[in-house]
Amino acid sequence: MKQYDIKYVPYGEVDKLQTFIEKHWKTSHALVRSTELLDFQHLDKHNNRYNFVVASNKITNDYDALLGFIPSSQYDKNLEENGDYWGAIWKVRTDVSNEEKSFPS
To answer: How many domains is the chain partitioned into structurally?
Structure first.
């Protein structure tokens, strides 16, 4: 059985997302301090989710990794056909050890 669900962060898990950023990226990060800023930069209103892909641990129910991105079309719909994305936070927890995180030599 795979230990992770790879998914977008649903709107209802914003607290979980902010907790991960605070604990594993940076305490008092701007996206933690301001949900308004987080929504402005990362909320996909059409799909009711945040533009973060996470590895959600099925055993602990925690996020063990995340990758944030911002579609440039979020700010200008004329850019949608370009398919451009800006990379944001990319973080894998350092305090988690499991077979799926290990890479062969």
So the answer is: 1
Give residue-wise pLDDT tens across range 42-59: 999 989 999 999 999 999
Residue 97 within a domain? no
pTM to 2 decimals?
0.83
Residue 89: CB atoms within 10 Å: 17
Domain hosting residue 18, numbered range = 4-92
Task: Confirm if 66 and 96 have CB atoms less than 8 A apart.
Answer: no
In a domain, 70, yes or no: yes
Rounded to an integer, the average pLDDT of 84-90 is: 86
The Cα–Cα gap between 52 and 69 comes to: 6
